[in-house]
Amino acid sequence: MISTDNIGALVGSTVIGSDGDKIGTVGQVYVDPDTGRPNWITVRTGLFGMRESFVPLDAAEQTGDDIRVPYSKDFVKDAPNIDHEGALEEDETDNLYSYYGGGSAGYSRTADDDRGADTNGTVGHDTSGPNTDDAMTRSEERLHVGTEKVQTGRARLRKYVVTENQTVTVPVTREEVRIEREPITDANVGDALSGPDISEEEHEVILTEERPVVAKETVPVERVRLDKETVTENETVTGEVRKEEIEFDDETTRTDRR
Fold this sequence. Notes:
Blueprint: E1 14-16, E2 22-31, E3 38-45, E4 51-56, E5 61-63, E6 66-68, H1 73-77, H2 90-100, E7 108-109, H3 189-192
Parallel strand pairs: 1-6
Antiparallel strand pairs: 1-2, 2-3, 2-7, 3-4, 5-6
C-alpha cells in the first residue's frame, strides 16, 4: 500500500519490477479525486527517460525510496501509449485497466503544489529525480573526434624485361681497287725495261673491309626502392549532437494598481 502522507515525495522514486530490475523513475502521480489516494504513476523509461508509461499502484509496495510493482520492465514499456499531460479520460483508464487487468475509475493528476515546497519556501520539481534545489541542469552532447589508422592499399615494386630496337651508327672502312697510270720518265725507265719485251703477267691485290660487330653487356643503371611519407590534410567531420534548452513560462496574473 502506498502512503498518502507525502504524495509529492513519490516523484523521482525508483520503480522496481517483479524480476528485481529497475524499470525507471516516477515522473508523475495520479490520485483518485474522491479519496485522494494515489492510484497511478507514470514511469520514465528508456536511455534518457524520454518515454513515460502508466503503472497502477493497486498492488504496488513502497520500500524506502523504491516502489515495487508486480510487472516486468518489458511489460510496463509495452503499456498503452497515453498522453501524460492532463487528466486521465475514462476511455484511457479503461484501456490501461484492460491491459493490466482490473476495473475502471476516474483519476486526476496531482497538483503542482502537491509536489512539495521545501522548508525555505522554494517551489519546484526536478523531473529527473526528487526535489534538490531551485535550479535545473541543462546538458548537451559534444563531439569527440579522434583518428584511427586503417589499411587503404598495398604498393609493390615489380621488375620485368622489355625488348626494344636500338639503332647505332658505326663508321666502317673498306678497301677498293684503284688503277694508277704513270708515264715513262727517266726516273722509271729502268724499271720499265727490266723485264722481257713481251710476256704475260698477273698482279693480285688483297682487299679488306670493316664490318660492324654487335656485342651486348649488362650494366646497372639505377636503383629503385619503395618509401613512405606522411601527408597531413584537413577533413571535415559532421555529426549530430543533442542539447537541452530551457524555456520559461510565466503564468502569473498580475494586477497593476495605481
